[in-house]
Amino acid sequence: MITSKLPNVGTTIFTTMSQLAAETGAINLSQGFPDFDGPDELREALARAVMAGHNQYAPMAGLPALREQVALKIQSLYQRQVSADSEVTITPGATQAIFCAIHAVIRTGDEVIVFDPCYDSYEPAVELAGGVCIHQPLSQPNFSIDWQKLADAITPRTRMIVLNTPHNPSGALIDRADLERLAALIRDRDIYLLSDEVYEHLVFDGHEHVSVLRHEELYQRAFVISSFGKTYHVTGWKTGYVVAPPALTAELRKVHQYVSFTGVTPLQWALAEFMEAHPEHVRELPGFYQAKRDLFCDLLSGSRFGVSRAAGTYFQLADYSAIRPDLDDVAMAQWLTREHGVASIPISVFYQSPPADLRLVRFCFAKREETLRQAAARLCAI
Ligand code: PMP
Ligand code: GLN
């Protein structure tokens, strides 16, 4: 028998719940992806790129035109000048970016602090690098960082802290004061930062996205990661990027070079062309998704679910303690899918030790209006 290197890893909750939704014919608000397509012009640009013969390897770090567009966007949104050559790397998905950033710096015995509930891909990457995740629960009910607990969790072995803002699954955001606290905490220590900002453009109610790219001191030790999949409604394109100072980028590329070598060429041409032609797309995204969040939450106000509007991401948590307090969230997500035809994600799976009284499921509202209306009608009938 093989001894698994990842004995605790099974099938992800996203695969499990999407499969259950397909089997039962439920409306799938579980795994995070839109049920509508990306812009026509973007998809046409991909067809053109393929037919124009952009089908061989792109440069290892990514197509220069796309790296340039990323640098321009960062300048425009976060007022930071980054070098497209030495600070931006295109990867086949943010997931691969996360894996490479962790492997670039984590060694045997290193500790990586993650905040629970925590996205599922961080820990396996840390374990494969020989490190260990130290799970720090976010405070309830706002999913904010407990700074004293974080300070207490830092040891001489701490090598990385993983931030995720806007936060999946809670939708919580960090603010500028949080960045200052973080900077003060790690100032004299040899600690890197992985900032997972894949939902950077999905921030609502007039709030700004507090990117680590806005903070000079923190940026100097950070890998900032994003995903074109979320931003352009094409999660299946699996294309993302990492922004990091030149020395960290050089180490990251050593790993990326041998994990995939490069990203998919014609996708990069299409994204570069679309970003250049439509810089307004990212500025319009908050309004686009806020309207979906508001529609979904307004509809749910006629249900017995308790909802506190997500500040960011395309996920909405819903408290079901008035409906089935007897069920834990895994059982609740199954029951909702099988009995009421709406699939969701139980959030306890993102915890090392979930709070015993957790009664929250996550719905994805990156869906067409009719999908949200149908799902809400089913949820209101419970
Ligand atoms: N980080 C977070 C927080 C995510 O929610 C996701 C995907 N849904 C990713 C990373 C991975 O992004 P990608 O699909 O580009 O690999
Ligand atoms: N990030 C997506 C979510 O949170 C899922 C991506 C995946 O299935 N790996 O739903």
From TrEMBL:
SUPFAM superfamilies attached to this UniProt entry: PLP-dependent transferases (SSF53383)
Gene Ontology cellular-component terms listed: cytoplasm
Cofactor(s) essential for the protein: pyridoxal 5'-phosphate
Entry keyword Lyase: no
Keywords, sorted A to Z: Aminotransferase, Pyridoxal phosphate, Transferase
Matches recorded under InterPro entries: Aminotransferase_I/II_large, Kynurenine-oxoglutarate_AT, PyrdxlP-dep_Trfase, PyrdxlP-dep_Trfase_major, PyrdxlP-dep_Trfase_small
Keyword Oxidoreductase: no
NCBIfam families named in the record: PRK09082.1
Family as reported in the entry's similarity comment: Belongs to the class-I pyridoxal-phosphate-dependent aminotransferase family.
Name this polypeptide is given: Putative aminotransferase
Organism: Pseudomonas saudiphocaensis
